[in-house]
Every structure is written in C-alpha cells, then in structure tokens.
Amino acid sequence: ERYRLEKRYIRRDEQIVWARLTASLMRDAGGEPEYVLAVVEDITERKLAEQARERSDAYLAMQYELARLLGVSRRIDDVVEALIEIVCRQSGWDAGALWSVDPVGGKLRCHTFWRQPAHPMDVFEDESREKVFAAGEGLPGTVWQTKNLMWLPDLSDSPMFERAEAAGEVGLTSGVGIPVGTETSVHGVLEFFSRARHEPDPALQDALLGIAAQAGQFLERRQVEITLAHQSMHDELTGLPNRLVFGDRVQQALLLAPRENQP
Fold first, then answer.
1. Which of 5, 20, 62, 263 has the most CB atoms in a 10 Å sphere around its CB?
2. 230 band by pLDDT with thresholds 50, 70 and 90
3. What is the pLDDT of residues 20-52, one digit of tens each?
4. Measured on CA atoms in the order 19, 55, 121, 187, is the torsion positive or negative?
C-alpha cells in the first residue's frame, strides 16, 4: 500500500515550498506489516510552473471575455464598470477604479469605482472620488505622466500613495496602476487593489497592459463616434442644432400632438 500527499509550506523567511510525501507500507516475507518507508520530495519548481500556466490561461480567458465585452457594448459607463469587475473577479483584486482626464481642469478624477460586494470600502471610495490628481501626483498621476504600469506591493510603504491611511482602514494592502490609452495618448488610469499582498506578477502585468490597451482603443473609438454624431447634428460655425435636428423635433411634435377632428 502507498499513500501520497502534496502540501504547501511557508518557511520562516515567508518563502513558499511545496513537498510531496510518499509513504509505503513494507511487509515481511509472510505478508505482515513490518515498517513504513516515507520519502519527502521537493516539488516546488513543478508546482510553481503549474500555477503559472494556470494563471496564464486564466488571464488569457479574461482578455477574451473583455474583448467580447468591448465589441458588443456601447455605453462607456457600462463598459468601464463591467471591465473593472471582470478583472477583479478573475485576477484576485478586491477593488478597482478608472481615473479619467477632466477636460476642463486637465486633471485626473475618479470616474468609476467598483469593489467586491463582501468588502465595504466607503472610506477609501469616498476619498478616491474626492481626490484630484495632476500629472506626477499620487499613483494615478504618476502612471499618467510616465505612461508606465506601477505595482505597489505595500501601499503603506509607498510615499507617493496619498490614500494609504484610507486604504489601511479598509484593509487594502497592495495595488497597481495601469495607463489606459494608445501609443500616442493616455486617456486615463486603471487602478486595482487587494486586501492580500500581491507581489509583481509578469504574466498578470502583461495581461493588464493588454486589457488597458483594449480599453484605450474602445474609449478613443467611442469619442470619435460621439464627436462625429455631434457634428452631424450641429452647425459647424455656431454650434447650434442644424436642420436635421430641427426636422426630427418637428416630426416628434407632430406625432405627440393630439389629432383634430377625431370621431
């Protein structure tokens, strides 16, 4: 008879080690149990490789799901909230936000905030919605300025993260910021936060950059569509509604007006 067990251990230096214990019951010539032979094998490298493949497959599936979402959805608000929720649920984050550039002030404001329903984060969400960041300020502003992903394994130990106190109050430990845009411009910044400590993960970083690029293309395309639709309905010089809009409004008024001489 043989018994096998694979188990994860955490060493004193916080390193994770996987071991496989194989115990075999040895019998004598008469078939009676004589002793147990136990062998312990370090399988850390194999387990970590398996986990990396599983994560990579999950991140790829996440990107496919988001590509489908961006292909069928029209409203920007719906797309952004669904995008943040999908990334949080499928890659282990507890909250996420999109920061977009205010066209009036030219600074970043929190456009959308989503969190796991099981973890209230009113204090952190409220502070995020109240904050405004210029280029180079805080996590969103720094990502916006550098156009680079920034990973913060320990929010409390990052001087540039100005919401550390509020994050600590709701139990958030790690975070990441990703630029949303195209090769020529950055339209905003995505943030994701976790209650558990998240060390930089190259596979997840690549997935997040790919998702942010997809989102940037969607936002740019929708903005062009909105601009073209506005131009088709308004006079180029005055900005006032043109004949097309006027005709539509007249038609609506005629349809809504009570008919005369009804029997």
1. 62
2. very low
3. 999 999 998 888 999 899 999 998 989 888 877
4. positive
Per DSSP bridges, beta strands 2-10 and 16-27 are antiparallel
Burial class from Cβ neighbours inside 10 Å (0-12, 13-18, 19+) for residue 92 reads middle
Give this prediction's pTM: 0.69
Domains and their CATH numbers in the chain: 2-44 (2.10.70.100), 51-229 (3.30.450.40)
Q: Which of 86, 121, 42 is nearest to 215 (CA)?
A: 86
Measured CA to CA in angstroms, residue 72 lies from 11, 97, 208, 217 at distances of 48, 22, 20, 14
Residue 225: its pLDDT value, please?
54
Q: Quick one: three-class SS letters along the chain?
A: CEEEEEEEEECCCCCEEEEEEEEEEEECCCCCEEEEEEEEEECHHHHHHHHHHHHHHHHHHHHHHHHHHHHHCCCHHHHHHHHHHHHHHHHCCCEEEEEEECCCCCCEEEEEEEECCCCCCHHHHHHHHHCEECCCCHHHHHHHHHCCCEEECCHHHCCCCCCHHHHHHCCCCEEEEEEEECCCCEEEEEEEEECCCCCCCHHHHHHHHHHHHHHHHHHHHHHHHHHHHHHHHECCCCCCECHHHHHHHHHHHHHHCCCCCCC
Cβ neighbours of residue 46 under 8 Å, at least 6 residues apart? 18
The Cα 157–Cα 167 span in angstroms is: 12
For residue 124, the one-letter residue type is: F
